[in-house]
Amino acid sequence: MKQFTEYLTESIREFKFRIKLATEATPELMDSIERVLGKYDVKDITSPKVTPIQEHPMDFQNLRNSEVSIFEVTLNYPSTPAVVLNDLIHLAGIPGTHVVVINSDHPEEIAREEAVKVQGGEYKPALGTDYEEDEAPAEAKLGFLKELEKETPEIEIAGGKTEKAKTTSDLPQGTKSPVGR
Q1: CB of 92 closer than 8 Å to CB of 33
Q2: Buried b (16+ CB within 10 A) or exposed e, 50-84
Q3: How far is CA 64 from the centre of its chain?
Q4: Pair 60, 98: CB distance under 8 Å
Q5: DSSP string, 72-99
């Protein structure tokens, strides 16, 4: 038969939350978050990962053109996402519109992580990088642009060919003064 201490050590649980901030996660803010969550016996806080600036960031549809800092917190004392969110809003001074707290094992979060894995892993910015070998440079696309520049042929309709439309550019230029005399 097991001793009580063995049962107790087997029953230790960790409570993991993913926190998303629609603001820069400065070291001062991270210290404040760790201090506020200290009452739940913080086991671990990961360093924040920052997403690129997005017009409408995921989970923050009411904000525009913002980056999102995402990090995970592991607590030894039981809590819920709503309680942690409330503490961050009221005790850490983070605006309620700029913070989201969810369980790390939430089905939507798991689905997002799987989608990132399927898409090919980490995001790589394309701006300022060289062409990959299988990509065609802009010079190769010039043939397409030259083809578009060709004059469009006259359109045939049931009554015959249409005449080219006359524009103000076809009128004689420079024969009359724009200022009346």
Answers
A1: yes
A2: eeeeeeebeebeebeebebbbbebbbeeebebeeb
A3: 11
A4: yes
A5: EEEESS---HHHHHHHHHHTS---GGGE
- Read off the pLDDT of residues 34-62 as tens digits, 9 standing for 90 and up: 999 999 989 999 999 998 888 888 888 88
Structure tokens at 99: 């913070």
The pairing of strands 99-103 and 42-45 is unpaired
pTM exceeds 0.70 for this model? no
Structural tokens at position 105? 């094992």
- Coil, strand or helix at 7: helix
Nearest-5° Cα angle at 27, 23 to 33 = 75
CA dist., res. 70 & res. 47, Å (int): 8
- pLDDT number for residue 46: 92
CA 10 to chain centre: 40
The residue count of the chain comes to: 181
All domains of the chain, ordered by start, with CATH? 13-119 (3.30.70.260)
* pLDDT for 163: 75
- N- to C-terminal Cα separation, the chain: 116
User: In which band, very low, low, confident or very high, does the pLDDT at 32 lie, cut at 50, 70 and 90?
Assistant: very high
